[in-house]
Specification:
alpha/beta; seven-stranded mixed beta sheet; five-stranded mixed beta sheet; about 30% helix; EC 2.1.1.-; SAM-dependent_MTases_sf; Class I SAM-dependent methyltransferase
């Protein structure tokens, strides 16, 4: 990252803040490899908080130059009119992903809005804040598809899909994730949106030991699968995803729908399409959802994959 690169970043942020988005959005997505020299930096607008994340080490000189550029940005007219008040820099390449507040009072939690729905984020304490912004259109799609449906949300994390499903009129949502703390935040997210928690279940279980329990609660009209690419000791996408797909026919209702996702840049959409055809041929590929325009990628196959499959009447 050079002074010229930082100038490019500053100009991009000034443009993105003129005017500032009214809801949470990514302002700069260097990881899409569209801006040489800025491949390992992202910038998110969290409605007053600007979160800058570095994914690979840089020199102390470059880090100081980045800090100076951000503080200079905070003196701009665009920043002043944006109602921005905090600058947070996260170093994802270091153990525990430490964060530094360059401007503003440290906040452990911060509530944001996306498509009119509220979510609570963790700032400065954890590697991930609690909502993956590249799945914005996926959550919107789930909201549009959920009216009157029973929804199963696998690898639920903080239940963003569940919040969208309830907002869309889902009859029932079951969230499953091994991380009970993430599910607890999911409850917070539902409460923020004044949802009826009697329509939501939170299962803090290992998926591969829970098939019987899930079958008893089924069948489901919509199943969402959004796993990590790699989670030590629990999930390896290339090895374990097919095991999940194989179980879908016994969980899915007649004419049910599956949203199967992958954020692994090394695995293209054909992997999921072929794996579904092999493991659950009753489910046919329908479409790949678009990614938000604020997440450009020089290779679309490396970007987030959110694929829709549907079970036909003949199955």
């Amino acid at each position: 990252m050079t002074p010229a690169n930082l100038k490019t970043l500053q100009e991009h942020l000034l443009n993105a803040l003129t005017p500032a988005p009214t809801e949470t959005r990514r302002l700069f997505h260097g990881r899409g490899r569209c801006w040489p020299g800025l491949e390992q930096i992202t910038v998110d607008w969290l409605q007053g908080v600007l979160l800058v994340t570095l994914f690979k080490p840089v020199s102390d000189e470059v880090l100081d130059a980045l800090r100076a550029m951000l503080l200079d940005l905070s003196n701009s007219e665009a920043w002043q009119t944006s109602q921005g008040h905090s600058l947070l820099v996260q170093l994802r390449y270091l153990p525990e992903s430490p964060s530094e507040w360059l401007l503003g009072e440290p906040q452990d939690h911060w509530d944001i809005c996306e498509h009119g729905l509220s979510y609570r984020l963790d700032l400065g304490k954890k590697q991930n804040s609690g909502l993956f912004l590249d799945m914005r259109l996926g959550r919107q799609w789930v909201q549009q598809q959920s009216a009157g449906k029973r929804v199963l949300n696998l690898f639920a994390y903080t239940c963003g899909f569940s919040v969208a499903a309830l907002a869309g009129g889902a009859q029932q949502v079951i969230n499953l994730d091994m991380a009970k703390a993430a599910l607890a935040r999911g409850r917070d997210n539902h409460r923020l949106n004044h949802h009826d928690l009697s329509k939501v279940s939170f299962l803090g279980h290992d998926l591969f030991n829970s098939w019987g329990k899930l079958r008893k609660s089924g069948p489901y009209d919509l199943i969402i699968i959004d796993p990590p690419s790699f989670q030590r000791g629990s999930f390896v996408l290339s090895k374990d995803y097919p095991k999940v797909l194989r179980r879908l026919p016994e969980l899915l209702s007649e004419n049910g729908t599956v949203l199967a996702c992958s954020n692994d840049p090394e695995i293209g959409p054909e992997y999921l399409i072929n794996a579904m055809n092999e493991q659950a041929p009753q489910l046919k590929f329908i479409e790949r959802l678009e990614n938000p325009p604020e997440f450009p990628d020089s290779n679309p196959d490396s970007a987030l994959k959110a694929l829709v499959f549907r079970r036909g009447r003949s199955s």
